[in-house]
Amino acid sequence: MRAPLVAAFIVIIMLPLALNVAGQDGADPGAENRELAAFPRFDGTLESVANFGNQFGHWFDDHFGLRSTFVRWYGETRLKVFGVSPTASVLKGKDGWFFYADDGALEDHISADLLTEEGVANWREAVERARRWLASKQIAFVFLVPPDKHFVYSEQMPSSLRRIGTMSRMDQVYAGLNDTGITVDVRPALFDAKTRERIYHKTDTHWNDRGALVAYQAIVNAARARVPAVPEPWRRDDFDAVTRDAPAGDLGAMMGLKRVLREEDLALIPKRPRAAVVVEPQSAAPMAEEGRLVTEIPGSTLPRAVIFRDSFMSRLVPLLSEHFSRAVYLWQNDFDTNVIEQEHPDVVIQEIVSRHLYVFTPSPELVPSCSDCK
Q1: Residue 81: Cβ within 10 Å count
Q2: 32-46, 133-147, 305-319: range with lowest mean pLDDT
Q3: pTM higher than 0.90 for the full model?
Q4: In the sheet where 277-280 sits, what is the strand order?
Q5: 27, 62 in Cβ contact below 8 A?
Q6: E-strand stretches of 289-357
Q7: Contacts of the segment 220-224: beta carbons below 8 A, 24+ positions apart
Q8: Which residues, in sequence order, are CB contacts of 318 under 8 Å at separation 6+?
Q9: Per-domain boundaries in the chain
Q10: Which of 341, 339, 346, 270 lies closest to 302, judged by CA?
Q11: pLDDT at residue 303 above 60?
Q12: pLDDT above 90: residue 144
């Protein structure tokens, strides 16, 4: 009796490796929201020899036979049998909604650990120094904090979570910058749009096309108020509204269920061709998550722009790029005067999503003080 059990045990533990030897990769890169480890390169150097074992271990952890199947089974069991998210990074909400729970998102929802007076003052100093420095160069400045999904759809969050206050870090930052004249608060427009249709994805952390359009219109209108040469924003009737079945977004991938969960994607398809094209990196898609992405409109004399951003700006790139002859998108929250000196923009946009107010502290000293402005 013992021998068959031992044999079965050996077969089970050897099966993943056997599948790898047979040429079957157990990874499914499209099902996870991260870059999987690559097979180690051996170039004959002592360093590659020394690192081979550790790197191979990381590769095997991500690629052993049946790995993606096991991950999916685990996720489906936790979600469908026990009714809970298979990862602490994702909260299971109501009615098929999921929410991000890392990077300060949970604290952001319950209004925990607000900024100190010094923290608010630091944000004000950083943004004010940027505004003054840009103004000395006749460059317009637009600053915004997009709200995370849990702000707009708080009614879909788990009932077990209770907010401990009415103020948020986003409220604090906006209040501290209230008299600067450069802030754009997209929340009122988003809440108005929400009464007519869904404006965020259920299985993704971000807004969908319809929410992105609302934010884009507010940003362009703010830029136009400072630089009238910026064209008017596209209207809703410049798009065809379509509903299409789609795989789960980044939250589904975090749970290992991107191939399992589905979502209705409420997309907007432009009725007229876009003029802007990506020139850096060449062949990159407009919404590619690149550290530096540059778009241009060939032959255009429209204003130029530099945009400091995170992932919430990605869906706006195809929209905003139609308003600038050249737009440089930098995936960073810190202000970068060197790029601005190089690019000579007419408009600078700085965007940071609300939860990042918990993980990012601005550095005012990165911007020359007004006395240093020329």
Answers
A1: 8
A2: 32-46
A3: no
A4: 183-184, 140-144, 347-351, 304-309, 326-331, 292-296, 277-280
A5: yes
A6: 292-296, 304-309, 326-331, 347-351
A7: 220/320, 220/323, 222/142, 222/184, 223/140, 223/142, 223/305, 223/323, 223/347, 223/349
A8: 274, 276, 286, 287
A9: 2-65, 98-372
A10: 346
A11: yes
A12: yes
Candidates 216, 236, 228; CA nearest to 302 is 228
Handedness of CA 142, 147, 148, 153 (dihedral sign): negative
CA 81 to chain centre: 30
Model confidence at 118: pLDDT above 70: yes
Q: Which amino acid is at 67?
A: R
Token output for 343:
């690019």
Q: How far apart are the first and last CA of the chain?
A: 87
State both tokens at 42. Answer: 């051996």
pLDDT in tens, 309-345: 999 999 999 999 999 999 999 999 999 999 999 999 9
Residue among 354, 355, 357, 285 nearest 116 (CA): 357
Residue range 2-21, pLDDT digits in tens: 766 655 555 456 555 554 55
Spatial distance between the Cα atoms of 369 and 373, rounded to a whole number of angstroms:
7
Among 206, 215, 189, smallest CA distance to 287 is for: 206
In angstroms, rounded to a whole number, what is the distance separating the alpha carbons of residues 97 and 35? 25
d(Cα 12, Cα 7) in Å, to the nearest integer?
A: 9
Query: 56: which DSSP letter?
Result: H
List of long-range contacts for 113-118, beta carbons under 8 Å, 24+ apart: 113/358, 114/165, 114/167, 114/168, 114/169, 114/172, 115/169, 115/172, 115/173, 115/357
Distance of CA 41 to the CA centre of its chain: 31
Q: Give the C-alpha separation, 59 to 62, whole Å.
A: 5
Tell me how far apart the alpha carbons of residues 47 and 32 are, in angstroms, rounded to a whole number: 30
Tell me which residue of 54, 131, 66 sits closest to 362, measured CA to CA. Answer: 131
What is the distance of C-alpha 31 from the center of its chain?
17
* Residue 273 predicted with pLDDT over 70: yes
Q: What is the pLDDT of residues 59-108, one digit of tens each?
A: 555 555 546 665 666 666 777 777 788 899 999 999 999 999 999 999 99
Closest CA to 287 of 247, 318, 323: 318
